[in-house]
Design a protein that fits this description.
By secondary structure, the chain is of the alpha/beta class. The chain has a single domain, classed as Cytidine Deaminase, domain 2, CATH 3.40.140. 43% of the residues lie in helices and 24% in strands. It has 6 helices and 5 strands. It has a 5-stranded mixed β-sheet with strand order 2-1-3-4-5. α3 packs parallel to α4 and α3 packs across α6. The longest helix has 13 residues.
């Protein structure tokens, strides 16, 4: 079974929000929502994520930029924004999504997700990562 298939299978069977697999090994799985678990995985696993597969419930622009930052090879999302899909495909990341949506909104649906706003203001994945470091350091999860 390929890494992306394994990640997808775990995401759905275990009702997880995030699964990261590399070389047939699950590196991380999380039931926690939002971007924080993926950000923490990058902090703790670093270069070990290069070439990994990720399955996530929601992939918007911020998650896509983190995939590029971590050099993820393939991704699957239950829901992905059009911008995230385009961004990843243009950079050679294999991405599939069960549902494509124009934008990722906040929890009450009244505005863009705060992380999407951060991604829109970042000029590249490294800048977004630095912004998120400050954001999460302040305890603003």
């Amino acid at each position: 079974m390929e890494d992306i298939e394994l990640a997808c299978s775990f995401l759905q069977s275990e009702k997880l929000n995030l699964v990261i697999v590399k070389e047939g090994q699950v590196l991380l799985n999380s039931k926690e929502g939002g971007l924080h678990p993926f950000f923490q995985a990058i902090v703790s696993l670093g270069d070990d994520l290069r070439g990994a597969a990720i399955a996530d419930k929601i992939v918007g622009s911020a998650a896509a930029m983190l995939c590029l930052y971590a050099q993820i090879a393939s991704a699957y999302a239950l829901v992905a924004s059009t911008r995230a899909l385009t961004m990843l495909r243009e950079k050679g990341v294999t991405i599939t999504s069960k549902n494509e949506v124009p934008h990722i909104f906040n929890y009450d649906g009244t505005d863009l997700c705060p992380f999407e706003k951060l991604a829109l203001s970042a000029s590249n994945p490294s800048q977004l990562f630095s912004t998120l470091e400050s954001f999460f350091a302040e305890g603003s999860q």
